[in-house]
Amino acid sequence: MNNLLTNKISKVFKDNKAFVAFLTAGDPSMDKTEEFILALERAGADLVEIGIPFSDPIAEGPVIQEANERALSAGATTDKLFTMVKRIRQKTEMPLVFLTYINPIFVYGIERFFKACQESGINGVIVPDLPYEEKGEILGIATSYEVDVITLIAPTSKDRIQMLAKEATGFIYLVSSLGVTGVRSEIKTDLKTIIADIRQVSETPIAVGFGISTPEQAKAISGTADGVIVGSAIVKIIAEYGENAGEILFDYVKSMKQSLSV
């Protein structure tokens, strides 16, 4: 097994249970996204996933789909997002990861996209609709620009879990439940067994996402995983409070981070 803990992303999982926050860029504006990301960090977020607005985000539930629509309507573009990330990088060294789909990367240009990631300070990308068999189309270029392509492992991946985990870098995004993103009242997937399978072949940190919204859920999952990912609950706060969401986000993320098992 390779020791990947020298990696910038993996380091945030080394000494504590990591809290990974997600928000959609440009909702309600790029300036507010910058403000919110810094508020998330102050509240205890160890890493932030930034969603690139896209018209067809197939893995997302209604909450994040609507955030994409609001961001696009407000004029969000990938170029504006890269400019915003450059500004953020003057204020924080916290790892930042893009969540996007393969189409926006292709449209932007694979080489151009990952070069811009490196120049702006993006550490990794998550591409939910990129099949393992097609990962090679971007992996070499991403790696050459020091950008991790984060591996997603779903409950349906049972026969492929170890194959997927062996090559994972940065962190492994373990999907807690079948279906699209969104808040869930309970998570019934046997995460312990899946995590045990991954641990046999990989030392890459494992963060669990999809459906986590309460401190109780976060505490329970962080007992086994290296971190938790929260998206829809954060995006819902932004949808409700808009430009005034900063303080509410801070309080919510602080309570979630404090709930994680030590």
TrEMBL record:
Annotated EC: 4.2.1.20
GO MF annotation, one: tryptophan synthase activity
Keywords noted in UniProt: Amino-acid biosynthesis, Aromatic amino acid biosynthesis, Lyase, Tryptophan biosynthesis
Pathway(s) served: Amino-acid biosynthesis; L-tryptophan biosynthesis; L-tryptophan from chorismate: step 5/5
PROSITE patterns with a match to the protein in the record: TRP_SYNTHASE_ALPHA
Active-site annotation: 49 (proton acceptor), 60 (proton acceptor)
InterPro entries associated with the record: Aldolase_TIM, RibuloseP-bd_barrel, Trp_synthase_alpha_AS, Trp_synthase_suA
Keyword Oxidoreductase among UniProt keywords: no
Pfam families, A to Z: Trp_syntA
Reaction it catalyzes: (1S,2R)-1-C-(indol-3-yl)glycerol 3-phosphate + L-serine = D-glyceraldehyde 3-phosphate + L-tryptophan + H2O
UniProt enzyme class: lyase
Gene3D superfamilies assigned: Aldolase class I
Domain of life, source organism: Bacteria
Subunit structure: Tetramer of two alpha and two beta chains.
NCBIfam families xref list: trpA
Function: The alpha subunit is responsible for the aldol cleavage of indoleglycerol phosphate to indole and glyceraldehyde 3-phosphate.
Family affiliation: Belongs to the TrpA family.
Protein's name in the database: Tryptophan synthase alpha chain
Name of the gene this protein is made from: trpA
